[in-house]
């Protein structure tokens, strides 16, 4: 089968799986809802702008002018008959959480596939250069010492911490315009250790905020909102699309940097771009959901065993599989009598499976 057809077939199949997992997840909870009702309520939540209306006015400082503030008016596309209670539960409570889980899983799995190819190591994951540690440091600082964080937002503080760490590691590892992969890895390990010490210090002095900080570091999707989705989605979607556009260059890098250079790849520029985009999509996911492990480690490895090492098909399939995986694990996390952070579930499922792959000798260099 030709590669484009194969890629489209796998992508379509995984999209169907994601839709099915989404409907099942939205149907489960303290209030069980029929999957058909879930599908109708989901379609009812689709809205489009119908025009501009003026709802309020504001005064321009220093001029005293009062001007109207335009606002878009939205109307639903569909009008299925769904009980108000079920519509509220699905559209306002469960769907934001499910969509956020799919966005985060989409981002982490794609970044994991890139990191495993970049380092040519199946044990690599999106946090290998300290992105997750940087996000954790920013988030814990915002929780424990909000007066010292100028950003005001927990998400923004974690996002900036993640990106700042990634570029710090890159700057440390780069010398003479070249960035050796081994040096990059060692710099990441060193920075992670330093940030771990900072995080521990802040946790010790976090007082009553300790529980919130610990839960965030475990990874969670509790109380997710559409604004959280709006924060992460643009970075994750655009970043993964651009990464997919560079899948060929990533394939060539698997041959080694010298061979890639002879084949016409601008090695250093490509490495910088791959690292920057992987860090960006990882930061977007971690900033809104905390540190969720094993999604970017196990999912790309499983998909590599199924579809092969060609990143032109591996990247999109890993992203979609990661979205379904995190939606499913978050459903498990909230299914019991007491909800647990989803990071606990991903680790509980991912670690034994990865050990199984090790025993079966399925883990090997990419």
TrEMBL record:
Keyword Electron transport: no
Alphabetical UniProt keywords: Cell membrane, Membrane, Transmembrane, Transmembrane helix, Transport
Any Gene Ontology CC annotation: plasma membrane
Superkingdom, taxonomy of origin: Archaea
Topological relation to the membrane, as annotated: Multi-pass membrane protein
Entry annotated with the keyword Coiled coil: no
Record-level Gene Ontology MF annotations: transmembrane transporter activity
Transmembrane segments: 98-119, 128-148, 154-172, 184-204, 224-246, 272-299, 340-359
Subcellular location: Cell membrane
NCBIfam families reported in the protein's UniProt record: PRK09535.1 (NF007081)
Family assignment from sequence similarity: Belongs to the binding-protein-dependent transport system permease family. FecCD subfamily.
Protein name: Cobalamin ABC transporter permease BtuC
Biological source species: Natrarchaeobius chitinivorans
Highest classification ranks of the organism: Archaea, Methanobacteriati, Methanobacteriota, Stenosarchaea group, Halobacteria
């Amino acid at each position: 089968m030709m590669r484009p057809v194969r890629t489209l077939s796998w992508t379509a199949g995984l999209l169907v799986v994601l839709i099915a997992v989404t409907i099942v997840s939205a149907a489960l909870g303290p209030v069980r809802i029929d999957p058909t009702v879930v599908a109708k309520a989901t379609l009812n939540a689709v809205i489009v702008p119908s025009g501009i209306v003026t709802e309020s006015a504001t005064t321009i400082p220093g001029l005293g002018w009062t001007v109207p503030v335009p606002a878009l008016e939205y109307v639903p596309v569909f009008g299925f008959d769904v009980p108000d209670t079920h519509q509220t539960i699905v559209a306002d409570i469960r769907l934001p959480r499910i969509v956020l889980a799919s966005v985060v899983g989409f981002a982490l799995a794609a970044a994991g596939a890139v990191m495993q190819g970049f380092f040519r190591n199946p044990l690599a994951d999106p946090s290998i250069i300290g992105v997750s540690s940087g996000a954790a440091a920013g988030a814990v600082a915002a929780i424990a010492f909000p007066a010292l964080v100028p950003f005001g937002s927990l998400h923004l503080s974690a996002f900036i911490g993640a990106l700042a760490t990634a570029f710090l590691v890159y700057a440390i590892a780069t010398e003479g315009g070249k960035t050796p992969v081994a040096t990059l890895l060692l710099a990441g390990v060193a920075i992670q250790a330093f940030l771990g010490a900072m995080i521990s210090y802040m946790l010790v002095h976090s007082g009553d905020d300790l529980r919130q900080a610990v839960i965030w570091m475990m990874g969670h999707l509790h109380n997710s909102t559409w604004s959280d989705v709006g924060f992460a989605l643009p970075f994750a979607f655009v970043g993964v699309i651009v990464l997919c556009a560079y899948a060929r260059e990533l394939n060539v890098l698997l041959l080694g940097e010298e061979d890639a250079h002879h084949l016409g790849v601008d090695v250093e520029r490509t490495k910088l771009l791959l690292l920057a985009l992987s860090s960006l999509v990882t930061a977007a996911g971690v900033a809104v959901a905390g540190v969720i492990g094993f999604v970017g480690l196990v999912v790309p490895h499983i998909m590599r065993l199924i579809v092969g090492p060609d990143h032109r098909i591996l990247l999109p399939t890993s992203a979609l599989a990661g979205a379904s995986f995190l939606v499913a694990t978050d459903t498990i996390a909230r299914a019991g009598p007491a909800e647990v952070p989803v990071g606990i579930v991903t680790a509980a499922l991912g670690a034994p499976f990865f050990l199984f792959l090790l025993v079966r000798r399925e883990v090997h260099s990419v």
